[in-house]
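Figure S4 source data
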Amino acid sequence: MADLDFLDEIKETESEAVLRVEEAREKSQLKRQTARQEAVDKIDQAYLLAGKIRQERMEEAQARYQDLVAGASASGDLQSSGLSESLLNEAATALAERIITLLEHR
């Protein structure tokens, strides 16, 4: 009879161990899911911030360009170069985008 009680106790302990392992797996899975979601949220925030920074840099570059064009126009350099203002605008925009791209990757 003592052997049967001992076997029953072993079976009960094994069942309890299985339940604890399952609970631990579920908790671990929930923690992983939470960590993934937090990572996704942080990445989204980083992309938003990067977009804002890029936009600020573009606006800054555009303002500098406008200052340069205004200075060149005032001194008459724009007409003497033979380049149209729209062509200069396109070149400045392309140059500003290239500079920002280079700055983002350093």
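Figure S5 source data
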Amino acid sequence: MLSKLFRQELLSTYKILGTANLVLLFIVLAISLMVPDFTYLEDKMSGSYLFLLIMVLIVFETATIYTTAILLAVRYYQSMYGREAYLTHTLPVTAGTLLLTKTLAYLFWCLVNVIPIVIGSFVFLRSIHPLHLTVEAILMFSDWMSVPALVTVLLALLIFLCSVLSGAATTFGCINIGGQFRNHRVLAAAVAYGIFYVATQVTIVAVVNIPMVQTIADQVLNHFRNTPQAFVFLLIFSVLGLLSLFNLIFFWISWFLSSKKLNL
């Protein structure tokens, strides 16, 4: 049943998101092929030309990423609380299965977003051999950290995965919170997201400025002064731990609220 639901999620989103990513790939490749060889960047006109192309690339890539996130949020709302909600909630599946299906679809399209960006970057930087530079950077970092290159790659993938799941967890959680307000579901979801975002930023600023936290941070830095590699590992796994905890909390909120009997 999970595979059928996942296939249905892709079928309901592939026309818009597939087209958007193909358009992005075409634009990225077209702009990347217009980039002059980096050996000619001493010319100010070439430098200005390159800067303009980079800005255009960033705009299109950012627009596609945000379009994907918004469309997936709309799709989640429509299937859980909108015109498809009745059919969704009469399926012989649990709330956990529905949530897992939509999370997998979210992850899939985020991975698809990366493809044109990576291809465009490699074409954009073709004159300086980006693949070779990427491999060298991974090997240098791995050597500095005294770990195999495979561990570095896996850590990067894990950070990317946790970041994407954070986006899904926040989106689904806020939509489910908003879904409890029958007459103002969209507004309530937007307000929930705004409150969460502001609360997160205020908490970070407050925590960073607490004297005790600053003292602990100074002690940690002093402790790892002679072993920066260990500090980097601590930082990476601290971020991963916080992201994982955050994801678990919001996915639990989504599961709990979507498990309740809804008044559609």
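The CA atoms of residues 103 and 168 lie 6 Å apart. The mean pLDDT is 79.
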